Amino acid sequence: MSEATVQRGRSLSHGQILVVFSGLMLGMLLAALDQTIVATALPTIVGELGGLSHLSWVVTAYLLTATASTPLYGKISDLYGRKIVFQAAIVIFLAGSILAGLSQNMAELIAFRGIQGLGAGGLMVMALAIIGDVVSARERGRYQGYMGAVFAVASVAGPLLGGFFVDNLSWRWVFYINMPIGIVALVVTSSVLRLPFVRRPHKIDVLGSTLLVMAVTSVLLVTVWGGSEYEWASPVIIGLIALAVVATALFIVQERRAEEPVLPLGLFRNSVFRVTSAAGFIIGLTMFGAIVFLPLFLQVVNGVSPTRSGLLLLPLMAGLLVASIGSGRAIVRIGRYRPFPIAGTMVVTIGLYLFTRLDQNTSRLTASLYMVVVGVGIGLVMQVLVLAVQNAVEHRDLGTATSSAAFFRSMGGAFGVAIFGAIFTNRLTAELARLIPGIGTGSVSFDPASLQGSPEQIANLPPPIHDGVIEAFSNAIHGVFVWALPFAVVAIVLSLMLKEIPLREHAHVGWEEAEIEAGLALEPAVAPEYAPELVGDGGDSPTERPRAR
């Protein structure tokens, strides 16, 4: 291959990459939006479909299938190619969306939300993996801000859109809105996204995939059900823990012998993969587990509406967005990534400490400044860990490594919600008993357990009881942030262990020199009208354009 071929093949212009990104970001928007848009519509959905006791499963079903399927998408895309898997995830997500909108009872809605989750598990992972294909590690930071923008927009727009549809159309439009976005994403990816894919003999690790799904589902059910639906010592929880242990052990045995393991255990010999996986888990546990209580603080302690509480989180999203863009551009300039997770975890720790100072007397300005600090910390960490692991593995494992990073972060978030949820509930019960002595004697006529999701009920309480409940919630949420601090310190230690590897100067797409010289057919990175011409293999006559699949 001539030097000219290499130089032209490895570089897509900023404009060409933005065309590819438009389709990827639409896919990510689908998954990010559906994490938040449903929340404000849930009371109305329950009012029409019934099934109040199964309300949490509308969210849990989505979480379960999305998390369990995440590692599978990475491996399947390594075997079959990113584009077809990304588009399949969009189709699955859209099928689940339209079925969810047509649901006639709560059981159907929960089942169809599970189908949505199956698609969502692939949307974000494939977007990140494709970014790893078309942009070099050194240049990838330039585009991290766009991903941060998608999450920031979805986090704010989700609750607002959900409330708008419920008030003006129907809760079913919470799901139907995905259709036009998904169709545009399919059109864009079909027309402009072409990725190199070398066909090679392979065999899907069906047994390993099944065991992984069993283990993940069991663990997530333990975190969701333990202490709420079932006692921690109940046969159901103990049985799920046993199933998780057995399935994990069998999964490890299977991965050692599988020809194409769904999660190659050899990746754990890579120190960057080990550290980023552990750091992603702890950061997911700390950040998502603690920050999920911010809207509850705003709604209950500060007395704002659910929609307004979403708007009040804008400072956190702004900090995340600015730090994500800034760190990305800095990485491009200096060519190093290790300082940013270290700084980010330290900033997050400081932000969580500031959160411990929140109470019913904290001004909105002060709370907003605290949120900016935490947002900046998150923006310095999250995408940089993905960049580090993508830079540290071979291209054939890029999809698996990317999906593993998302998987461990999601698992950490699930554990965090469960751990901090248990801390919050226990602390709230103790604080209510201390501050409102009438509870438990029959002189106070409300159920403390019913207050957690009912800001309206709290607002209508008699003044003395209302003040006690507000203080109890404030103290309980304070306890959550206090317990999050040790985990944040662990994240700092892990980030200090992250090894600095020189960032690759080239993207995988257009740099498949060995495969082209071997005569293997590839796809160009983008459709012909967007891609640079391939000039030849060192001879006088140009070669044919690689076949597009």
Provide an overview of this structure.
By secondary structure, the protein is an all-alpha fold. The chain folds into three domains: 1-201 and 506-530, Up-down Bundle (Growth Hormone, Chain: A); 206-258; 264-499, Growth Hormone, Chain: A (Up-down Bundle). It is 70% helix and 0% strand. It is built from 22 helices and no strands. The protein has helices spanning 3-10, 14-34, 42-49, 56-80, 82-101, 106-134, 137-140, 144-168, 173-176, 178-192, 206-225, 235-257, 271-291, 294-301, 306-312, 314-334, 339-355, 364-392, 398-435, 455-459, 463-496, 513-517. Helix 5 (82-101) packs antiparallel against helix 6. The longest helix has 38 residues, at 398-435. The protein is globular, with a radius of gyration of 24 Å. The two termini are 23 Å apart. Residues 1-11 and 510-549 have low confidence and may be disordered.
Keywords, separated by commas or semicolons:
single chain, 549 residues, mainly alpha, Growth Hormone, Chain: A, 3 domains, 22 helices, 0% strand, globular, disordered N terminus, disordered C terminus
